[in-house]
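Backbone-to-sequence.
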């Protein structure tokens, strides 16, 4: 798309350049009162980083940005392999939380997922999930594989919120806040090991 526009004498948009270059990045905003408790900041790559806090128990906050649905399967699998490596490197006695954009639309929960996904999912429509493109379904499958493998709880789905507070993605063409699936999605999630799940109150 970028090359076509340049050849025609036009200019590519910033989004098109990002897509062409595979550009991405993650960061962390920390409240001033917590800055002094930061023990380490570990950038893994453009999609993962870990901030460790000197607390009792020690807390690791992992910020993640998973590949979009249209990216190659190998790139998605590599993301989850690297995420798993970060998780495996955390001492058993430490606490951790994984937050970020997983580009994973849940659209409800299967019976076997109910111990991981709460009842408060945006647009709990199994039909939409089944009708989704294969690449969108793949993102959800890879996400849930990681969730189940690590016995995580998708904590943002356990609190009753308005739809406007659940959604984390809005398409460019969406007008107003009419919560129509396709215009709005819930693709960012908060993941926590089951044993620490009750430590998150909201």
């Amino acid at each position: 798309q970028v090359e076509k526009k340049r050849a025609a004498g036009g200019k590519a948009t910033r989004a098109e350049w990002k897509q062409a270059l595979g550009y991405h990045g993650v960061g962390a905003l920390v409240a001033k009162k917590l800055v002094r408790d930061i023990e380490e900041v570990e950038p893994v790559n453009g999609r993962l980083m870990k901030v460790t806090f000197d607390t009792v128990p020690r807390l690791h906050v992992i910020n993640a940005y998973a590949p979009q649905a249209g990216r190659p399967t190998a790139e998605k699998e590599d993301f989850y392999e690297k995420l798993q490596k970060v998780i495996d490197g955390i001492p058993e006695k430490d606490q951790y939380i994984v937050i970020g954009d997983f580009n994973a639309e849940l659209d409800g929960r299967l019976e076997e997922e109910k111990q991981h996904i709460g009842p408060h999912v945006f647009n709990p429509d199994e039909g939409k999930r089944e009708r989704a493109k294969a690449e969108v379904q793949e993102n959800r499958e890879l996400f849930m594989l990681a969730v189940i493998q690590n016995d995580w709880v998708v904590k943002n789905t356990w609190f009753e919120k308005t739809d406007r507070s659940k959604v984390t993605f809005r398409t460019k063409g969406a007008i107003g806040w009419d919560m129509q699936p396709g215009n709005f999605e819930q693709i960012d999630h908060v993941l926590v090991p089951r044993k620490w799940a009750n430590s998150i109150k909201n």
